[in-house]
Amino acid sequence: MASAEPGSTALTYASAGVDTEAGDRAVELMKASVRRTHGPEVLGGIGGFAGMYDASFLTKYRHPLLATSTDGVGTKIGIARALDIHDTIGIDLVGMVVDDIVVSGARPLFMTDYIAVGKVVPERIAAIVSGIAKGCELAGTALVGGETAEHPGLMAPDEYDVAGAATGVVEADELLSPERVQPGDVVIALASSGLHSNGYSLVRGVLKQAGWSLEREVPELGRTIGEELLVPTRIYTADVLAAAEALGRELHAVSHVTGGGLAANLARVLPAGTSADLDRSTWTPQPIFDLLMKLGSVPLLDAEGTFNLGVGMVLVVDQAAAERALALFSDRNLPAWVLGQVSAGSAAEGAVQGTKGVDGGSVRLVGEYRA
């Protein structure tokens, strides 16, 4: 093996910007958070090359289908970095991933994460992972593995990004899908906790144009704008699974309201040839939405196609089950209300249809939001 030339400067992995010892310290700091998500199905501890999950229980399924999803949290990370608050962004990551799985009726079983950083700061990595673990606890999902990659020279020392993937399972004959939706079904909204993790490029543009700092106190919010923007995504996994168990085949479809807004995401789970008019007067969006629209002169239709405007998840249920569904969510302290009803035929002009490549139903928002 060649040795360094005389007089040359010796280069090491650490001098090139990768601190493996810092990575090891980060792992030690995150161990307790990760272990809290483990049940008896998780084999081994942290540090293995792969996370192991005992799937022998699948033999009890008649026809198990595996569901998988992967996602990140987008430019909301910029807010966390600017405020140096990193223990909530992981909750957002889990919500974006597992709640895409539960819309099929699948129970998310386990999740892995990937964190890319410019420089490993053990305490910051541990804070991020603590949020991911908290989200997994809320969803009843095991965090079985992850990777932290240091990218000096490609990312600034304070830069990072996170992504995650999860796998779930559902019985084939319990799969929620557009084929189960019928005219007359009731559309039920589940309240969001705020912006969740979508539309932050528009949010940051609005704040930049207005010259607002993240530390600005906003009376109508009761906190700073930065604190409001970091409110974690609500995780609906346990609530939707409870509804699936209680309602059985009377629960027909579920939609996670993320990028594209309420109408576009609901249209994805309605069958072609059906439509739904959603009544804006049935709810009042949280103050943050009105604030951003006024501050940035954001047109209503653009806001509705970007933000969730207070609705984070939507259920389509048999008309006979609507009251029971609302009572169930009330018992779980989750605000829910009837948005509208599914009808046969295409919606009128202005409806959203054919989003994300899905040839589904059509949805439009009607009326005015409740003051």
UniProtKB/TrEMBL annotation:
Pathway: Purine metabolism; IMP biosynthesis via de novo pathway; 5-amino-1-(5-phospho-D-ribosyl)imidazole from N(2)-formyl-N(1)-(5-phospho-D-ribosyl)glycinamide: step 2/2
Entry's EC annotation: 6.3.3.1
MF terms in GO: ATP binding; phosphoribosylamine-glycine ligase activity; phosphoribosylformylglycinamidine cyclo-ligase activity
InterPro entries: PurM-like_C_dom, PurM-like_C_sf, PurM-like_N, PurM-like_N_sf, PurM_cligase
UniProt KW keywords: ATP-binding, Cytoplasm, Ligase, Nucleotide-binding, Purine biosynthesis
Record SUPFAM superfamilies: PurM C-terminal domain-like, PurM N-terminal domain-like
The name this protein goes by in its record: Phosphoribosylformylglycinamidine cyclo-ligase
Organism of derivation: Kineosporia babensis
